[in-house]
Design brief:
2 domains; Molybdenum Cofactor Biosythetic Enzyme, Chain A; about 250 residues; 4-stranded antiparallel β-sheet; homodimer
Chain lengths: ~250, ~250
Amino acid sequence: MTVKEVTAAFVIIGNEILSGRTKDANLNYLATFLNERGIQLREVRVIPDITATIVETVNELRAKFDYLFTSGGIGPTHDDITSASIAAAFGTEVYRHPDAEKVLFDQYVPEDRTPARMKMADVPRGATLIDNPVSKAPGFRIENVFTLAGVPKIFQAMLDELAADLVGGEPVKSVTVTTNLGEGVVAEGLEVIQNDYPDMDIGSYPFFRSGVFGTSLVMRSTSEDDLESAAEKVRGLIRSLGQEPLEGELSKDD
Amino acid sequence: MTVKEVTAAFVIIGNEILSGRTKDANLNYLATFLNERGIQLREVRVIPDITATIVETVNELRAKFDYLFTSGGIGPTHDDITSASIAAAFGTEVYRHPDAEKVLFDQYVPEDRTPARMKMADVPRGATLIDNPVSKAPGFRIENVFTLAGVPKIFQAMLDELAADLVGGEPVKSVTVTTNLGEGVVAEGLEVIQNDYPDMDIGSYPFFRSGVFGTSLVMRSTSEDDLESAAEKVRGLIRSLGQEPLEGELSKDD
């Protein structure tokens, strides 16, 4: 590996995910977004709307990884405690950011400028704003922590806004070879290939769809040469077991 | 609260979730399954296929919560390291469980009984098996830790198998009142209601669908009386703001 690995973690803040009410839709989007930029998502946590839990989790993960992203809890209601909690994690407090205040002031007609809505202009001291092109109330960055909205449309729009601020490593590329052979049939030969490429991540993912079983073998590496030679060995393994390898994804796991 | 709270955590083990290749489909299923049984899911982590990370995470969370569930990494290939890692977390090792061996032996014709497949009969010493009605290779339980397959169909079937072993607290019920008012409009009055019911979890979830904005107000409590009286106050709040409250979910967040 010639380029330093760049790592990230993601904290999803929300009782509604833990209770099953809401399905998270941000994890997969962020994982793909980071992967394309050479940033390796290493850990995700889903935690409740409890200040002490947010503070502890943010402080652990921002020290451990290059970037930390959070989603959820930056709206106008009493259960939106993320901004104050992030401030506490940094040993500071929130203040009314003048640019955020102006954005919200311009967004609402006078009778809609409720104290609750204007509270969305409160961010930790030292934070810079992340634009929200969907509904205006901004996210923010403080040091290596990016605090985004939980609503997927806004989360995604904020990611696009901050993309230029992220410095990635060499992107990890992948090659997928698919077979109708079972995992248990390819396992032994696959382990030999994995041992030939100790720095490569070779994953084996069984699938079952429309009555057809099979296995997707996914090689991930920053080296295209290694990827192609490993893929050729995997294709050879499948042929040696009496099948013709299939390229790409036949199916996501289901 | 008359009944002790029963809590749980969930560890999703899988590089494929972190890279964005695979969308997790188990979190929401487990959250709903536990919620229905009066077990409160308090934390979820997604971690990579790295033994030290699995050991550390499992030991932290099994001490902190009543139950811990894991998904992924119990198949036949080299990247399936969950069973050995759980064993290490408990200071023990895997052994070939005779009942699991028999299940796999009966499942496969002789030429399909590969060493890789038979390895799926290896579980930590002290573990009891969790039946897998889909593809036979079992999960297992050791103390308060339940180790399940990652493939959603199998994960769900294993949960059904182990359901009788779980002891839950009083189920948390919920009432949802929906309005086309924005969060920022109801926020102030909602906080007053929250303060009247300090033990109740009142969440506010904005939605936007087909060009219509609105807010779902979700009250969660073990007390149906409290739920109904709080819901009536929320309905009153909405009426005082000039709208007729709508019952139930108009829309999930999107």
